[in-house]
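Hallway conversation turned thread

IA: we were arguing at lunch whether anyone had actually written out Plasmid replication/partition related protein end to end. Turns out nobody had. So, for the record, here is the sequence (329 residues) and right after it the structure tokens. Reply here if something looks off.
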Amino acid sequence: MTATQQPVTYITAAHPQGADPVADSKEPALKIHPVTSLFPMLSEGELLDLAESIKAEGQHEDIVLDADGVLLDGRNRLAACEIAGVEPRFTTYTGSDPTVLIFSKNIFRRHLSKGQRAMITVMARSFSGHSLRREAKTHGLSRSRLSAANVVLTYSRELAEQVRIGALSLDNAYNTVAERKARAAALQKQYDHLREHAPDLAEQVTESEITLADATAALNERLETERLRQYVINADTVRLADGDTTPALAELVERGDITWPEARQRAEEFAVHRRDTIQRSRQALHLIAENWGVVQDLSARPNTAYAQEITNGLSPAARALVARLITSS
């Protein structure tokens, strides 16, 4: 509800008489309601067009002040009147909720994008205290867009301000915030891992003695060395169980004769040789098992011409083996 006032003389502090008001500033000298301030002013060209219209046709809509003279609506009209040299016409708001008036007059101005509308609405919540659900319903705005604007505002006032003034789209600002949050989460996870496995390095990062990247690299080197050490120790344990009497690889590393990577290579070579030997032995034993009937036949006729003919075609080592097998069977 508004009541019309008589025109008053209007000279802003920013626009002294004789100065170019557009070149100096577009902001009026009156105190502006904080929610009103959230809505961007028209561009210089648009403001000049409005000034020409007011000069030619007069001021169509009153500038709205509250009972204390705080401007609620009409900053652009006020600035345009000053540019045009036209005495502005004011009216006083007598309602109980100036925020409702401000939004009803400004939220759907054609020069505002949907992202700007959402951001301004979210910023204004600090004055209204309303939920996103209520703001979406009251102003007919997308709740998902309001939610995105709220995320941007929460994590980056700088990006939120760029959205508000139309310098950055809400989608781009939201994506930037999402990327920053993801990077921050990754860095936090990296630091937590460092603190768990290397508290000393984490402390150095906290004290800014080294970077997180350098500390992580140092931890990875430690973990890799420990992994190599454990692999070599396991290989030494197997070698010892197999009856190998040569010095343990871990011992050679501790003495400085070889490095852990070199010990790992030797351990791998040992593992490959052991695996191949076991495989060949299994194959040989399978052959013996498959042909054990021959040994049993020879054992039953050890001194016959049949047995002699078979063994005569063998090498000395093979004949010795046959003799032992026949005896043991």
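OS: looked through it. Confidence is low (pLDDT under 50) at residues 3-25.
IA: good, adding that to the notes. The chain is about 65% helix and 5% strand.
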